[in-house]
Amino acid sequence: MASIRTYSLIYVALILLATGKFVFFHFPEIFNYQVAVGGTLILAAIKVSLIAGYFQHLKDEPRSVTYLMLTAAFMVFLLTLAAGYSIQ
Description:
The chain is mainly alpha-helical and 88 residues long. It has 3 helices and no strands.
């Protein structure tokens, strides 16, 4: 199990990543909309991996559980794409 210091560092990293998402959209003279959306998606993926790895303790689980979670996330992504395609 990780120490309190590790959890504190992860918490600070999550706050900094959330601040980065704020910066992307509130400075349009630096970042255009496409860059802001792409950067936000990348930051969100990093945040999800930190939360799943440390706060949900997936990094201590066997690799099969990790692969199962990645497969489930991929299926959700495919379902979202299919739903978006059917709306158009």
